[in-house]
Design brief:
Helix content: 40-55%
Radius of gyration: 18 Å
Largest sheet: 7 strands, parallel
Number of strands: 10
Strand order of the largest sheet: 1-2-3-4-5-7-8
Order of helices and strands: HEHEHEHEHEEHEHEHHEEHHHH
Number of domains: 2
Number of helices: 13
CATH class of the largest domain: Alpha Beta
CATH architecture of the largest domain: Alpha-Beta Barrel
Strand content: 5-15%
């Protein structure tokens, strides 16, 4: 949720019954501190921070999280044990995002309190195994003692019910909340998701950090390079820097990375979080009622 989930979105989710997460992946330490402090002021409910562990300044971000007394951290993109001792000493609950059973067992072994099993349907960066949410979640549930949270391709109440039916104890939803009024994403990004259909996303950068994005000029060019087996240096040169910022935050729909889930085709509006949360609950209840008919 880089460039998407700042204090406004995180606090809105927490104020409406969810667990809002501040996406620190696009923030410097002092900016993260500002967002945490504003989130504290905007909600009395629990909230957390997502921390990408491979960032060069991850240690500085972790220090801010501890200093600001955040009590829930979702870690991703790196070894789950990197800061676990520091977090545990400060009574912080740690949840790690995983793409397969091997990484999930590692997260459990180092003391994580739960895992997010993220299928390849998810927007943004994904695991190279390309396991789908539907196949990944029940396998994680069967192999772990700690709770499993489902993510990847969940955009409505039917998806939530399906995830819980597979044994998940909760869900993590990204793209659907990226396309809300409180999201800090550019309006061009939000509209691109609203306009997307079932076939409008694809996987790119399979050798540089695979990501699911909405098809555009840049993603098509890099995909052609990959299909033609161009060398990694050439791909890196085209990738350049800050493609995510360019697409998500600045709204350059052709040259940026428009990271979005395969479920983008289900997203047809840009609501306030309060309305979205009510809609998700109503959709869940309607889907559950239909199941009970059988």
């Amino acid at each position: 949720m880089v460039w998407v989930s700042g204090w406004k979105l995180a606090s809105a989710v927490s104020n409406n019954g969810g667990l809002g997460l501040i996406g620190s992946g696009s923030m410097k330490p002092e900016l993260l501190r500002e967002h945490i402090q504003k989130c504290k002021s905007a909600t009395f409910n629990s909230y957390g921070v997502n921390l990408p562990l491979l960032r060069d300044d991850a240690e500085d971000l972790a220090k801010v999280i501890i200093e600001e007394n955040v009590k829930i951290v979702f870690t991703s993109a790196g070894h789950p044990g990197k800061f676990i001792d520091q977090f545990k000493k400060n009574n912080i609950r740690v949840v790690h995002v995983v793409p397969n059973i091997k990484f999930a067992l590692k997260a459990e072994s180092v003391g994580c309190d739960a895992v997010v099993g993220e299928g390849v349907e998810a927007g943004g960066h994904n695991g190279i195994d390309e396991l789908t949410t539907f196949s990944l979640i029940p396998q994680l549930v069967d192999n772990l003692k700690i709770p499993v949270i489902a993510a990847g391709g969940i955009s409505d109440g039917r998806g939530i019910l399906a995830a819980l039916s597979l044994g998940a104890e909760g869900v993590q939803i990204g793209t659907r909340f990226a396309v809300t009024q409180e999201s800090s994403a550019h309006e061009n990004y939000k509209q691109a998701v609203v306009n997307a259909n079932d076939k409008d996303t694809h996987l790119i950068l399979k050798n540089l950090g695979m990501a699911r994005v909405i098809k555009n000029k840049f993603s098509t060019e890099i995909s052609i390079m990959e299909n033609n087996c161009s060398d990694l240096e050439t791909q890196k040169e085209l990738l350049g820097k800050k493609r995510e910022m360019k697409g998500i935050f600045e709204g350059n729909i052709e040259e940026g990375m428009i990271e979005a889930s395969q479920s983008s085709g289900l997203i047809k509006d840009i609501p306030y979080v309060e309305m979205l949360m009510k809609a998700l609950i109503n959709q869940y209840n309607e889907a559950y009622k239909k199941l009970k008919l059988f």
